[in-house]
Amino acid sequence: MALTSQQQEELLDEIERALRGGLPEGARGVFTWSSVGDGGSQAGFAVVDGGGKPIAHRHPEGLADLCWQLKKGMNRPEVGTWFTVRCEVDESGSFRADFDYDEEPSLRAIPEHYAKEMEWFPRDAAHTPDWLSAVLERVPNVYMGIVAEPGDQYEDEIGPHLGEVATAFRRAGWEVRRGHLGELDLSVEWGTLETLSSYGHIRFAGKIDPDRWTVLVDLMSQHGWNSGGELYEGGTVTAEFHRPDEGDAPSAR
């Protein structure tokens, strides 16, 4: 439900009171809060004394809930809502709140979080920044996974490990690079995938041409890996596969 102007002012008054109540005498504080979809939020509180010297100071509890109520209530059709609010308060009685609808917040949000943001707070093309359009283009439509298991074909008799997966994709014509934290960035003309691995489990997420789904299934199936995955369109599973039982063909509907 959209908040009226008066309701918005009442929430801002609550935020101001909370900030001012926790501010040391003679100090000035700048509180920032950002959120993106279901990717959580991030808050910061920079406080300086009367001479401009930084003071270590925690922001008061409960501000995140107030900011979330304000963000939801300020949503407007076709425009959406803001990503970041910046509140400045000092002992003189001055209070100012600025709302940023356009700049990318400094959260470690992934494309799926931005997709959820657009689902909750839709924007038309005129109110969608270029950087946001680019992020949304990277929202995965395919998710896969491999669970390690014993096998004579693996280097240390259990696998596959990340290096063995890299070799298999490279031999299939994919470009393989080391990405964030040593994970794999896999690319081919019709798709890109990234890995996220933990002990005994390698996850894949990326975007492919749906018409090449069976090609990817064949690659994931031909090595005997304990693997499976799903292809999505608009949040709906349109195809999936899992490792077949002995003698069966891969399931890829």
Q: What does it look like?
A:
A hairpin with a 5-residue loop joins strand 1 (28-35) and strand 2. Helix 1 (5-21) packs antiparallel against helix 2. The protein is an alpha+beta fold and 253 residues long. The chain folds into 2 domains: 5-108, BH3703-like domains (Murine Class I Major Histocompatibility Complex, H2-DB, Chain A, domain 1), CATH 3.30.500.20; 140-242, 2-Layer Sandwich (TATA-Binding Protein), CATH 3.30.310. The model is unreliable at 246-252 (pLDDT under 50). The protein is elongated. It has helices spanning 5-21, 63-73, 111-120, 130-136, 162-171, 213-221; strands at residues 28-35, 41-48, 54-55, 84-90, 95-100, 142-147, 149-150, 158-159, 175-178, 184-188, 191-198, 201-208, 226-233, 236-242. The chain is 25% helix and 32% strand.
List the helices and strands and how they pair.
Layout: H1 5-21, E1 28-35, E2 41-48, E3 54-55, H2 63-73, E4 84-90, E5 95-100, H3 111-120, H4 130-136, E6 142-147, E7 149-150, E8 158-159, H5 162-171, E9 175-178, E10 184-188, E11 191-198, E12 201-208, H6 213-221, E13 226-233, E14 236-242
Antiparallel strand pairs: 1-2, 1-4, 2-3, 4-5, 6-12, 6-13, 7-8, 9-10, 10-11, 11-12, 13-14
Helix pairs in contact: 1-2
Short structural summary:
The chain has helices at 5-21, 63-73, 111-120, 130-136, 162-171, 213-221; strands at 28-35, 41-48, 54-55, 84-90, 95-100, 142-147, 149-150, 158-159, 175-178, 184-188, 191-198, 201-208, 226-233, 236-242. It is of the alpha+beta class.
